[in-house]
Amino acid sequence: MQTIAFIGLGHMGLPMARNLLKAGFNLKVFDLVQASVDELAKEGAQAASSAADAALGADSVVTMLPASRHVEGLYLGDSGLLSALKPGTLVLECSTIAPESARKVHKAAAERGIELLDAPVSGGTAGAAAGTLTFMIGGEAAVLDKARPVFEAMGKNIFHAGPDGAGQVAKVCNNQVLAVQMIATAEAMALGVANGLDPAVLAEIMRQSSGGNWTLEKYNPWPGVMENAPASKGYSGGFMAELMAKDLGLAQEAAQVTASSTPMGALALQLYRLLLKQGKGQKDFSVVQQLFVE
Ligand code: NAD
Description:
This protein is of the alpha/beta class. It has two domains: 3-163, NAD(P)-binding Rossmann-like Domain (Rossmann fold), CATH 3.40.50.720; 169-292, N-(1-d-carboxylethyl)-l-norvaline Dehydrogenase, domain 2 (Orthogonal Bundle). Helices cover 48% and strands 14% of the residues. The structure holds nicotinamide-adenine-dinucleotide (NAD). Nicotinamide-adenine-dinucleotide binds at residues 7-13, 30-33, 36, 51, 64-67, 70, 74, 95-96, 121, 124-125, 239, 243.
């Protein structure tokens, strides 16, 4: 069985790494937080003392880091991880980062004979734990074929989005739609309730009508409408508003590069920044509901 170096054991990385262990891969793990490394070591992974130590002799590397600067900081430069990897190593970079940043890392990898895919995910921490993530992948199809068993141990839907950086483009497009739908749903819920409707009745009518969308199906932002939604648990768990703001910012950066017109995405970003200013960045992104109620 091949050996995988897994770097970045946060909310997403830890459960993803756990699924690789369950699938029988040999795992070497590293995170700046020692407690996360120790936790996986207890479950059978080999603890590494640095990213380079984890990657030593590994066939593949998986990274799940917060943002572009962490990914560029880890891989690039004379002492970066790419310079420590042997040619032919497969790198699956799963963080959500700027498409431009992903292309920069792709280029540096190709110059060293390293096969890299940008492979951001959708599905949240629940999908990471259940092994049902969606992967949106940018890079060569032949490299994806080689990496498929690793992706399949962590996810259910594995999409080839296109060439280098395409996975990141798909991810920011998807999250922009999600944010806009969430805001539109929250606005309509507040409007209906202010005009005398029962929130559960309104939610069900819209869900089954032409306004129906993913947030009405799975994630209603009005507290009490869906028992298991973050809105009914004080907007805890789920996907943090500050991560949504980050992804909306990445969408705006991508729009800037191509001079694309994205007014809905721009407005969504402004509303999420407002939430961050209100100290709600660590709440689930459906907390946007509170902008429309007293
Ligand atoms: P997180 O902050 O919980 O985890 C990131 C981990 O990376 C941390 O444990 C941190 O210590 C570690 N780290 C940072 N720099 C490092 C370095 N140089 N070497 C080793 N470890 C390092 O973040 P997360 O929620 O797991 O998200 C990871 C990525 O996945 C982000 O890009 C995020 O946008 C994306 N994502 C998150 C979700 C979600 O629901 N949380 C869903 C989809 C995508």
